[in-house]
Amino acid sequence: MRIGLTGGIGSGKSTVSAFLMEGGAAVIDADAISRELTGPGGAAMPAIAAAFGPRALDSHGALDRAHMRELAFSDPDARLRLEAILHPMIGRETEARAAAAQAPLLVFDVPLLVESGRWRQRVDRVLVVDCEEETQILRVMQRSGWTREGVEAVLKQQASRARRRGAADAVIYNERCSVAELRQQVLALAKRWQGAGKA
Asked: In angstroms, rounded to a whole number, what is the distance separating the alpha carbons of residues 171 and 164?
């Protein structure tokens, strides 16, 4: 069974992903693939440098994420041009890894699953990790040292909580629950979906 895992920034999606792996799932992380493609010597970097010039690269030849984030927020066309380079490459790599994986559950960890519009038909179920927006803001500020304004700017770029939940087959509400309780929820869901996949 192919599961699409998504959630807004600071929702706890990475923690849920780790618990799914513990429950026997193979997790293919679109963000990790993106970082590989845009790291020093990454396969996407020549096309990015050609499209955006040397300012798009940091001193190591990787994508200058802070610069590109600012550019994407100020110029929506820049974000679309970057996505046009990255998304097909990420798509090809995720499918290659999916073909090589051997697990009863195949989880595609895709932060912008709902926004992309392409992923829904590629998975059997969509799992959304959800929490209150204020909780997302506080978590990211504590974890990454961002300003409140910086986190809010990212949230504005992402699908609303209601839209994300509307696309879900299951929602894990990661608010005011302990890590142990969250783990129990995720493992129970993984077990149920593995059973459904065998039916």
From this structure: 9
Looking at CATH, the fold of the domain delimited by 1-24+105-199 is given as Rossmann fold (3.40.50)
In whole angstroms, what is the distance from residue 54 CA to residue 61 CA?
9
The structure tokens listed for 105 are 């559950």
Query: In the chain, which residues fall in CATH 3.40.50.300?
Result: 1-24+105-199
Which residues make Cβ contacts (< 8 Å) with residue 81, sequence separation at least 6? 51, 52
Question: Over the stretch 1-41, which tens digit does the pLDDT of each residue have?
Answer: 999 999 999 999 999 999 999 999 999 999 999 999 999 99
**DSSP class per residue in 139-185:** HHHHHH---HHHHHHHHHHSPPHHHHHHT-SEEEE-SS--HHHHHHH
User: Which position has the token pair 């509307």?
Assistant: 166
pLDDT in tens, 110-156: 988 998 878 888 999 999 999 999 999 999 999 999 999 999 988 99
